[in-house]
Amino acid sequence: MPIRPVVNWRNALAYKLSGLFTQKINNIAPLPNTFNIKNTTDLIQKLQDTPMAPHFTLATLDITNLYSNIPVLETKAILKNALEYHQTHPQTQKELMWYNVTTRQNYFIHNHDIISQHDGLAMGAPSSGLIAEFFLQHRKYTSGMPSTQTQNH
Question: Residue 13 burial by CB count (10 A; 0-12/13-18/19+): exposed, middle or buried?
């Protein structure tokens, strides 16, 4: 059975670096359509702020084992292209590509055993949600799907 670990990254060596990476990328190359939520409170707030007609139906989509299925190397190239698209200064691009540090620290301890997740993004890393969103939006816009967002009416 595959495992889906949820890891407390706050004590990890790369935690602060991962958070800083996320903040910087969000400021430099914000995603046009971000569907991430921070926590349950954030979800409730967003739902309260969304106008709902009686005929609307709410649905959620959960990608099975999302983080462990994100191709790390491909997504690194997608992020690099996004920084270039936003005309980020080359030195800033170079500084922000500490991506390897945050994506390679992908291990956790279970029953006193150190387990390394070889594929995908780390569960619990502050940067994993953003990196996954970059990959998903890239796939959406390069797979022949329409590039405009539609809403239920």
Answer: exposed
Residue 119 has pLDDT above 50, yes or no: yes
- For residues 121 and 128, the answer to whether their CB atoms sit within 8 Å is yes
For the entire predicted model, the pTM comes to 0.70
Strand partners, 113: 110
CA dihedral 3, 129, 21, 72 (to 10 degrees): 60
Average pLDDT, integer, range 28-47: 79
Which H or E element spans position 46?
helix 40-48
Q: Could you tell me the residue ranges of all domains in the chain?
A: 15-31+66-141
Q: For residue 110, what are the CA distances in angstroms to 5, 69, 88?
A: 9, 21, 40
Give the pLDDT of residue 146: 46
State residue 82 phi and psi, 5-degree precision: -65, -40
Q: How much is the CA Rg of the chain, to the nearest whole Å? A: 17
Pull the structure tokens for residue 151.
């809403």
If residue 40 lies in a helix (H) or strand (E), which one and from where to where? Answer: helix 40-48
pLDDT in tens, 139-153: 877 765 444 443 333
> Residue with structure tokens 């790390």?
72
